[in-house]
Specification:
about 120 residues, 7-stranded mixed β-sheet, 11 strands, about 50% strand
Length: about 120
């Protein structure tokens, strides 16, 4: 059973920084799945934020590009999201996601964490 557990959320002032962590289990999830961060603000749909592929290639939504950085440590089964220059509109619950299309009979497998709240406010 795949489990993703986020941590690191909290209250931060505009312009501040936070680092979110996602602990994945069982071992090798971060090296065999594309790992994503999503977020969902109150009253809004969940939106994709950033992704890191199995080989380490990163992609970002235009809204966060240049401010957020996704990274991972496969040996620790950890994924991170560094949030810099935070704005009030970044306030949301942030979710870790593992996704892979295995093809064939297995098809697509996708897993979600429970989320961690990030609040940007003065």
């Amino acid at each position: 059973q795949v489990q993703l557990v986020e941590s690191g959320g909290g209250l931060v002032q505009p312009g501040g920084s936070l680092k979110l962590s996602c602990a994945a289990s069982p071992p090798s999830i971060t090296s065999t799945y594309t790992m994503n961060w999503y977020r969902q603000a109150a009253g809004k749909q969940r939106e994709w934020v950033a992704a890191i592929g199995r080989g380490g290639v990163t992609t970002y939504s235009d809204v966060v590009k240049g401010r957020f950085t996704i990274s991972k440590e496969d040996v620790k089964d950890m994924v991170y999201l560094q949030l810099n220059t935070l704005k009030s509109e970044d306030t949301a619950v942030y979710y870790c996601n593992a996704h892979r299309d295995w093809g064939g009979f297995t098809g697509t497998r996708e897993y979600w964490g429970q989320g961690t709240q990030v609040t940007v406010s003065s």
